[in-house]
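The methods section describes the discrete structure representation at length, but only in general terms. An entry of this sort, consisting of the sequence and the corresponding backbone structure tokens, reads as follows:
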Amino acid sequence: MERTTEPGPTAGTVAVILNWNRADDTIRCVEALLRSAPAAPRIIVVDNGSSQGSRDSIRARFPALRLIEAGQNLGFAGGSNLGIKAALAAGAERVVLVNNDVEVDPRCIARLEAALRAGKEAGAAGPIILTAQNHRRIWGAGGVLSHRENITRLRGFGQAQNGRFREDEDVDYLPGCVLMVRREVFEKVGLLEESFFCYMEDVDFGRRLLDAGYRNRFVAGAIAYHDASSSTGGGYTPARKYMNAVNSVHFLRRHGTWKAWLGFLLFDILGLPGAFAVATMQGRPLAAFAKMRGIIDGLRGVRVTPERVARYVRSSR
């Protein structure tokens, strides 16, 4: 009797993981990918200029793993692009970016690949992402562009996983923490935009993908677990708020409509005094100040750099 089985990853799928001073996270991420069923993708780890010996730890745990050394911190976009280029040069038909603070469900990779096989109009696919701390809490189910504060919004963020998002559907963009992309999309659209350095590069990529006639496909049956406290601390921290603010303006310069600019003026710029007051009462005024500084720098055309981010990381300690 013939049996139908879920299509699994082939040799054409390559996972790219970016590491920066967090070897334990990267090792857990690789181990989760190796548990993928019915087969694991090939894996490339890019070390983004780590200074704490994490490269040696990764090599000791996975001696056969391909590890590319960037030599410096190129940001998420630049470091990921090194891995994407290596994957494409090795013949990858699909590349899946996986944050090192993410652990994928064993069926995640196969289900993302199946979604891309279903139709060529799907240029990228992403899973429902639950928090690592609570597997019943949603971190994101794809993203939408908004004319309100912060320009973008993760669907379902912070909500309980109570049966929502059960159907595959198209979204405005897919978070870069788990993002599978067809080879032909990179060839037509290009790689991640490195001028974003970190944050909003996935939103920019999703927008460019849509402009090229492809779809960003949210895959409800694919699951990943995200510890949203990576190298910049996650959440409402000075470093994260600064980078998001700078890059929100950068995104608007590249793609903004008059409605988007108006929403940014009303909800982000004019709303800054209120946000600063609330943040101060909650004991986090530095993050609100960093957002204000980021908006100013973004309007001045300043770009995110490791040196600028380091100032806000130090200020939060």
The first helix runs from residue 23 to 34. Residues 1-10 have pLDDT under 50 and may be disordered.
